[in-house]
TrEMBL record:
Keywords: Hydrolase. The keyword DNA-binding does not apply. Residues 483-507 are annotated as: Disordered. One of its GO terms (biological process) is protein import into peroxisome membrane. Pfam families: Metallophos, Peroxin-3. GO terms for cellular component: peroxisomal membrane. This is Phosphoric monoester hydrolase. Residues 35-173 form the Calcineurin-like phosphoesterase domain.
Length: 827
């Protein structure tokens, strides 16, 4: 590649390729002998990548492999080079990821520097100086570069050629430096966006917006607000697929945000000022996309409030914090392959192609199903299985309090330890969960083993998955799922030490170790309290609903028995003759049915609000609706309440651990005492307030976020056929949670969980080996790895030993029986 040597001005390092369109041959969906396999973020995890391809039986001769980007970086360096070699040598279809882009930019920069007179010599000298500085103990390349910029005046013009915020000699630099020219050529040919017209699908690393957030949905500047204009030379196809393709191209080319490569590489949400953000605040872009697609009603629709458009689907990666995120029109495949040890594949076509109804172009715009035909959804809602709901909250806690990420920073600050630690992380994937119980109690290696040992933890989607891949057959139209994200306003753990830290953070080792200490204990107690509260909340809700339904059934049976007795009396011969004589002699005339069979007449024609009548079928529907609304309120604890809970726990942890250094030697009883001291400082009021929304407006908001946005739970019509309302259920629940009985059962559950934790430390080869003459004492730093491992396993393992243990406690069963026995509330 030739550069202008006269001006020495920096070239365009980005080398963006905006868009690539895939044909039917490049993305086959209707050929039963071919499949499309779309893989989530790989991040250089080569062994896991190969295991995933083996799991889905990838055949290069018949399968089309597609990547959603970020094929390199974050994982082991050697793995990144192996993945790059595989992808380039097979010319695998892929979009660019934000990490891929950094590698491209560094390689372009290196080519530019080497093309300048004296550039290669300067770069060689700098590399040599950095290696010698490392030998003297330097471990922060950013600090070292800043020092060189201040003191190396002789080469100041060269130092200025390093763009701001670029990290010299970091992982992206080393990948860029090590890749071949053919691999570099492959990388720069990767587009930022892929359009699959015949599948009405977009593929982008971070995402695509369906409308410009600066304007209202029906504004004429929005591509979905109007039917594309057809010119005379164009032909309108009967199946409207041509119009759909034009509209999809308009989404890509007329919405300004979609034309900015940074957006499609980094976007996570949209802020209130309508700007795009890569941070976790703001409204998730997928939620906005869903709202736009829900209004699409076809080009011929006259429905009020609808848009003249057809839906399209976005497949993306990037958002590891959301995990596997399958919704009706957006499919997120980044399941966290580095820290969560899970990689995901979406398999389309093959034998499922023959199941697609009609023309693919008109029907391919909906949900994903797994290999058994089950709908895949990653958002908890009423009706989902307990393991799935439990898994979701566990994922959020691990993401927000990512102890392993901070450990990654510490490793990068150690001489040559990042590469060795990353290799160890990759190698540890094959270890089983049982082996993680005997964690190393010295240094950082134990942390890496603890993270890697979770590679085969259940994912909540398939108990048999070893690499957590998800195979999906096809997109199915007209199936809706829950895909709303919780509002992240007040529910925040931003005050915690950084958990999703940028690897280039400038924090010192002391600050990072302090973060590890506080995060580990905070995550451990958050795990204990969140599991205990979620279990007790669900138990309470189900017990109350079961009692209400039981009483309603008893009343219904009693009413039917009364009606049966009345009918038997009325149908007797003497009574019917008596009623006939009354009618014959003119004694108060009534309708014939009411004269001879008054009970039957009353049953059929009496007003609906008569309490003596048998229950109307509509009341059953109303009760089911009320039950679903009530149970959906667990969304609050699952997505918002646990974060409020964390703030209470964090302050207690900081108070107790103040002055306790990582070198402090502790016995098993000392650790137990520290945990007890922290628990005593956690206020019960703060815990119970985290379980349920406390105002009507909050209840409505939570129900909308939980997917129940088609009715008002407090409207008179909702409770017209019932004697129990949402207010009644919430009032009783809050009263129960403020009672001394709840305090006792919660204390019992939490104490049992702590005891279970301490028992995991005992035994041969563990932190506190049994059989020692004296109680062993170990440094606090050595206790942190097994603590972090225990919380991770407790949150992800299914079935959950903590949940099973809590439900098996006599106190828990007594609490449930006490709720059940409150019949006076219903009679």
């Amino acid at each position: 590649m030739n550069w202008s040597l006269s001006s020495h001005r920096p070239p365009d390092f980005s080398l963006y390729v905006s868009l690539e369109s895939l044909s039917v041959e490049q993305f086959p969906l209707d050929d039963i002998d071919k499949r499309v396999i779309i893989v989530g973020d790989i991040h250089g995890m080569f062994e896991e990548f190969q295991a995933l391809l083996a799991k889905v039986s990838y055949n290069p001769s018949s399968d089309v492999l597609v990547s959603v980007g970020d094929i390199v970086a974050k994982g082991p360096h050697s793995g990144s080079m192996q993945v790059l070699e595989f992808m380039a040598s097979h010319n695998i279809t892929a979009v660019r990821g934000n990490h891929d882009q950094k590698v491209i930019e560094w390689r372009t920069w290196l080519e530019w520097i080497h093309s300048l007179p004296g550039g290669s010599n300067w770069l060689f000298q700098v590399q040599d100086k950095w290696e010698k500085a490392q030998e003297r103990g330097a471990d922060d390349v950013e600090e070292w570069v800043e020092e060189q910029v201040r003191h190396d005046k002789k080469h100041s013009k060269w130092w200025k050629k390093i763009p701001e915020e670029w990290q010299l000699f970091g992982d992206h630099y080393r990948i860029a430096e090590g890749m071949t020219q053919e691999q570099y050529s492959y990388m720069i040919q990767r587009p930022v966006r892929i359009h699959v017209p015949h599948a009405h699908t977009f593929i982008a690393h971070a995402g695509i917006l369906a409308s410009d957030p600066n304007y209202k949905r029906k504004d004429k500047r929005q591509p979905l607000s109007h039917i594309p204009i057809l010119y005379e030379a164009e032909t309108r196809k009967e199946d409207t697929s041509f119009l759909r393709r034009l509209q999809e191209l308009a989404i890509l080319n007329e919405i300004p945000q979609n034309l900015i490569p940074w957006v499609t590489l980094n976007m996570r949400g949209v802020l209130d000022d309508h700007t795009v953000t890569r941070k976790k605040n703001g409204t998730p872009w997928a939620q906005l996309y869903k709202k736009d697609m829900k209004h699409c009603a076809g080009f011929d629709s006259k429905k009020k409030g609808s848009l003249p458009c057809h839906p399209s689907t976005v497949v993306y990666g990037h958002a590891a914090s959301r995990g596997l995120d399958i919704n009706r029109w957006t499919i997120g495949l980044d399941s966290g392959c580095v820290y969560n040890q899970r990689m995901t594949a979406l398999v389309l076509g093959g034998k499922f192609a023959q199941q697609l109804p009609g023309t693919i172009e008109d029907e391919y715009d909906g949900e994903a199903i797994d290999i058994d035909g089950n709908i895949l959804s990653s958002r908890p809602k009423f009706g989902d299985s307990w393991p799935k709901i439990f898994y979701i909250v566990g994922e959020q806690i691990l993401e927000e309090m990512d102890v392993e990420a901070v450990i990654g920073e510490l490793q990068m600050m150690s001489n040559k330890s990042f590469l060795e630690g990353s290799e160890s992380m990759s190698a540890s994937v094959s270890s089983s969960i049982s082996s993680s119980s005997a964690l190393s109690t010295s240094g950082l290696q134990g942390w890496v083993d603890a993270a890697g040992a979770q590679a085969h933890s259940p994912t909540g989607y398939s108990s048999s998955e070893e690499t957590s891949s998800v195979t999906s057959g096809s997109f199915i139209s007209n199936i809706s799922t829950i895909e709303s994200e919780p509002n992240s306003s007040s529910a925040s753990v931003a005050s915690l030490p950084s958990t999703s830290s940028d690897p280039t953070s400038s924090r010192s080792k002391a600050q990072l170790w302090n973060s590890v200490k506080l995060l580990t204990f905070t995550r451990t107690l958050t795990t204990i309290y969140s599991i205990s509260l979620l279990t007790l909340l669900t138990l309470t809700q189900l017990t109350i609903l079961a009692r209400v339904k039981y009483i309603r059934a008893i009343k219904h049976m009693s009413s039917e028995e009364d009606q049966e007795a009345a009918l038997e009396g009325e149908l007797g011969m003497s009574n019917m003759l008596f009623m006939a004589l009354k009618a014959r002699f003119g004694i108060p005339q009534q309708p014939l049915l009411k004269t001879f069979l008054p009970s039957v007449h009353e049953l059929l024609f009496a007003p609906a609000d008569d309490e003596d009548l048998p229950e109307h079928p509509l009341s059953n529907i109303a009760f089911e609706t009320l039950s679903a609304d009530y149970l959906t309120l667990s969304y609050y604890l699952l997505h918002i309440g646990w974060k409020n809970l964390t703030t209470h726990i964090q302050s207690a942890v900081e108070e107790v651990l103040e002055g306790v250094s990582l070198k402090t030697r502790l016995s098993e009883s000392d650790v137990h005492r520290l945990l007890k001291d922290m628990m005593q400082r956690v206020a019960l009021e703060g815990l119970t307030a985290s379980m349920l929304p406390n105002t009507e407006d909050m209840v409505r908001s939570v129900l909308v976020l939980g997917g129940r946005d088609d009715h008002d739970p407090y409207s008179p019509s909702q409770g017209a056929a019932l004697s129990t309302s949402m207010d009644d259920l919430l009032s009783e629940t809050r009263t129960l949670f403020s009672s001394y009985r709840f305090t006792e059962v919660l204390d019992t559950c939490v104490d049992w969980a702590v005891d279970s934790l301490m028992k995991s430390f005992e035994g041969e080869g563990r932190v506190f080996a049994s059989g020692d003459a004296e109680a062993p004492r170990v440094r606090l730093a050595s206790i942190l790895p097994p603590l972090a491992s225990w919380s991770r396993t407790s949150l992800l393992a299914l079935p959950s030993e903590l949940v099973d243990g809590i439900l098996a406690k006599d106190e828990t069963r007594t609490f449930s029986a006490w709720i059940w026995a409150k019949f006076e509330l219903e009679v």
